[in-house]
Please model this.
Amino acid sequence: MDPDLIVNGVVAGSLYALVAMGFNILYRPTNVFNFAQGDLVMLGAMICASAMALWSLPWFVGAALALAAVGLLGLIEERIAVAPVLRRSASGHAWVITTLSFSMIIANLVGRIWGPDPIAVRPPPPLTTETFELFGANVSSYQIALVAATIALAAGVESFYRTRAGKAVMAVAEDREAALLRGIAPESLSRWSFLFGGAIAALAGVLAAPLLYASIGLGPSLLLKGFATAAVGGIGSNRGALIAGYVIGLVEALAAVVLSPGYQMAATFAVMLIVLLIRPHGLFGHPEARSV
Amino acid sequence: MSAPLLDVQAVDAGYGHVGVLRGVSLQVEKGAIVALVGANGAGKSTLLKTISGVLRPTAGRIVFDGAEISGLAPHRIVDAGLMHVAEGRRLFRSQSVRDNLELGLYGGRLDAAAEARRYEFVYELFPMLRERPDHRAGVLSGGQQQMLAIAQALMREPRLLMLDEPSLGLAPVIVDQVIGAIERLRAEGVTILLVEQMVDRALDIADRAYVFQNGVVIGHGAPADIRGGDLIRRAYLGAAG
Model:
């Protein structure tokens, strides 16, 4: 197999894993699947790109701005599109429509403000997208940093779930009423989760921008790939998201070469279907954690 | 007589537009075991949910230790020192025994040494828990789950413990252990409000009891008086009173 293929697969897979982690963080205390996640990712990329291109701010400042702004937007989404419908029925599914509406609104506004042209984003120095040869593959320092940052983030998020607050989030996911009776306030955990889930979405966009350009097209494509990754990994599992990201990234890269680039999407979702037929809760999902 | 620890005053409550409780008044004295008995659907669990804040009373007041708690969010009521062990044990089944106990400490303000003493306290009460810290709660037997649920509720040192059907579905020998633990808790100074299907077992250990029928308290008093009268027969057989 061509070593470049593996590099491309692992890099793309890391981005999918980042998007899936954003999904997972929001999902855990709310059982809500945020359909606006792709737009939050896209907005993160656009804010960072604009800060750098228009105001000539350094990458780190642009990235911090994007994380803060999109985190805040995630919180606003929770307040207006999620908390009210969960208050009416914690197990209802009205959030499908409300988060989808939120997604449409963001996509529409961003299209109005920024227009359809992609913006090129340079990676933060000293990292570059210039490739060099490593073990027979062409890689760039930015790609290596991206993969490492994703692994570090997955490890960080998983270690949070081993703290008391993290266990409380898992408790809410499992049995909201029982959590209430133990003094856990699900509403506050769900606010924090949307804040962090939004910031992680922005981070995925910021990290994707130097490789894929910042454009409004980023939202829908990453939403679907991120969704497939979360489902294959087991919704809620960040370790699963990382592994599933690599699997999907590699399958996609392979499909592009063996079949044709046009079959990438079909290959991704074929993998998803096969995994879910064999393991309905994904590679690392617990069936019990979702029962109520 | 000093003011009761828990004072439920003429409370109405229910689900949505369906009223269940009508004008329920009830007092729990500090250090006592008070039993609630009555047929299925009489409103006992609804009352516990209303006290713990899962349901809001539509009329009346609930006062705990001199402060009104009706209308507060459930976690505020937990902070006030009132813990509710719901029917069906409601553990976090995919988490370990130790993690379930740790979740019982969530939101508390105990320092590490005080938390260690709470673990020791519940391990003394239910030695089985000490032996299986890494077992997932979902794989424990029914009796072990009930003990874990009670232990979890004790982690924050509640002043009032509300137990909903702790004997439900348990073997007689396990019921003995659970009842024994409840009596030991009273000896430790924990006040207990007990909902129990096994009326005789509840009356054996209770200091006072309330009899529920169709969302109304139809009588209360010392266990001996309750046993002697025809309240129980009316509550369970529904004979016209």
About this structure: Chain B touches chain A through 30 residues (CB under 8 Å). The domain at 6-237 of chain B is CATH 3.40.50.300 (Rossmann fold).
